[in-house]
Amino acid sequence: MPNQNDQPYLYRRREMAEPDWRRIPAWRHVTVTEWRSAQWQRAHCVRNISQLQAVYGDLLDEYFYTDLDRDQRERATMSLLIPPHMLNTMAPLALVRGAGSLTAAFRSDPVRRYTLPVSRTAIPTTHPTHSLRGTRCTRARCG
Predict the structure, then answer these.
(1) 76-99: b or e for each residue (b if 16 or more CB lie within 10 Å)?
(2) Residue 36, exposed/middle/buried by CB under 10 A (0-12, 13-18, 19+)?
(3) Alpha-carbon gap, residue 126 to 35, rounded angstroms
(4) Residues contacting 48, CB < 8 A, separation 6+
(5) Where are the alpha helices (DSSP H) in the chain?
(6) Cα separation of 45 and 57, whole Å?
(7) Which residues pair with 82 in a beta bridge?
């Protein structure tokens, strides 16, 4: 049997812990019971840019909201629907440490990039759905 000390890589375990949601201005007074409630999470999902601004206030620079608005108008294929728990996992240490800009940490956060895309590049003309991007839906339900 090999000795445990022969392992070439030192594995480090970190305790997984959810960031404190009370660091975000809009949720400072949310109780643990409310935060853990699926109904509360659903009711407080961010569905548009003004709701995102209500959550973060002036902690995110105005140009972030401007870029998000442009992305939503020009490239988004779905509307926003982000639960508070997901927003809480974005840039979790930026407000705790107090160092640097929340906007910079938010822009570089991998969860944010996946959930809340901003400043995406255009779809290449060789992409299979490129020809569909510029067309408008004429059916009544497409609004």
Answers:
(1) eeeebebbbebbbbbbbebbeeee
(2) exposed
(3) 45
(4) 79, 80
(5) 32-35, 38-43, 49-56, 62-74, 84-88, 94-97, 102-108, 110-115, 130-133
(6) 16
(7) 46
Q: 19-36, pLDDT tens digit by residue?
A: 899 988 899 999 999 999
Confidence of residue 143 (pLDDT cuts 50, 70, 90): very low
* Max Cα–Cα distance, the chain, nearest Å: 70
d(CA 127, CA 143): 25
- Rounded CA-CA distance 19/91 in Å is 10
Which residue do the tokens 């998000």 mark?
A: 68
Query: In Å, what is the CA distance from 90 to each residue of 48, 93, 94, 138, 142?
Result: 17, 9, 9, 37, 31
